[in-house]
Amino acid sequence: MDLFPILQELHQPGGKILLVVLDGVGGLPLEPGGPTELEAAQTPNLDRLAAESALGLLTPVHPGLAPGSGPGHLALFGYDPFRYVVGRGALSALGLGADFREGDVALRGNFATLDAEGKVVDRRAGRPSTEENQRVIAKLKEAIPRIEDVEIHFYTESEHRFLVILRGEGLGDGVTDTDPQKAGLPPLEARPLDEASRKTAHILNLLAERIRAVLRDEPRLNGALFRRASQKPRFPSFQEVYSLRAAAVASYPMYKGLAALVGMEVLPVEGEGDAHEGKLKALRENWDRYEFFYLHFKKTDAKGEDGDFLGKVREIERFDAFLPELLALKPEVLALTGDHSTPAALKAHSWHPVPLLLKAPYLRRDEAGRFTEAEALKGSLGHLRGVELMPLLLAHAGRLLKYGA
Ligand code: ZN
């Protein structure tokens, strides 16, 4: 059900909300009966906070589905991830901070190594350095500014990955990928999936040819494979649906892109990696200017993906040490959760629910003593879906009028 019209109607001014997302925070024991990452972590600050908060479990997207961070986040932002879908090309474009406009088509590109017959030898061109990628992208920018009446914009992503944006009249995003998915085959032709995307497929095939010609003397990065063509989706903004001035504090491109897509202002963050200090500075400096803050930490997910159980434990402990600074900002409503689980035991995103912590003025008594998966189950919030979180936060912030007479 689409709650947006109801939430719009019920809006009233209220308190400030801080939503903290520890990416992929949910975990699993390494062996049956053992602790999860959250249970193994020493988290005195989080434990103290949990004692005065309400806890629950949250299934980000749907039971049994291991979501990507895209649908996981959109759900936390209150956008039904089955209805509000973002293509990967579009997500990359937003994440790279590319000039990505309505009507543009973004595609993810891989540099590949092709042999003399044009067959793919290596789909990732030997995993070049990002510097080498940048050097080759500079060449392409110079040589291929446009094809016919379509502007071509290239961006380095990292290693073998780049992004291309097509800008012109009459471009659809219904085209097939050109990656053959294995070596020994030539790149595929892009084919239109609908009438509106005929021109896109045509331009893309010409582009693949032009790239081969320009890069013919390159030993490794001499071909390109394209996938996941997508246009920028148009979603209603936080301002429209919740009447919230919202800001995002995140270091990694994709999360900034997702936040921008729902109309959040993306605040600049100084520093590398999860940049705790830089994020705190961004929050402090902008605290009075917004009513909603989304604060993202990535490393919990990255360590889980690496299968690094102790690394993930350390990232949770690092967040714990940082927590008092966040609490000192005194948001009326604080929510802490994940966009999905990334158990180190699986080295991947999983379908398991994540713990949810809510600190707000009007809470019921709660038996959950720690921010862990098992304790969250004892909490007073019960078990929620990701899309149910925002209405709850709005209510706790005093931002929703009574529904119905
Ligand atoms: Zn994630």
Notes on the structure:
The protein has 405 residues and is of the alpha/beta class. It folds into two domains: 13-83 and 235-396, Alkaline Phosphatase, subunit A; 91-230, no CATH class. Helix content is 32%, strand content 20%. The chain is built from 14 helices and 14 strands. It has helices at 4-10, 37-40, 44-51, 69-76, 88-95, 130-143, 198-214, 238-242, 253-261, 276-286, 299-305, 309-327, 373-376, 389-396; strands at residues 17-22, 54-59, 105-114, 120-122, 146-147, 150-158, 161-167, 223-231, 246-249, 265-266, 292-297, 333-337, 354-359, 382-385. The strands form two sheets. Strands 10-9-11-1-12-13-2-14 form an eight-stranded mixed sheet, sandwiched between helices. Strands 3, 4, 5, 6, 7 and 8 form a six-stranded antiparallel sheet that branches. Helix 9 links the parallel strand 9 (246-249) and strand 10 (265-266). The protein is globular. The protein starts with a helix and ends in a 9-residue tail after the last helix. The mean pLDDT is 96. Bound molecules: zinc ion.
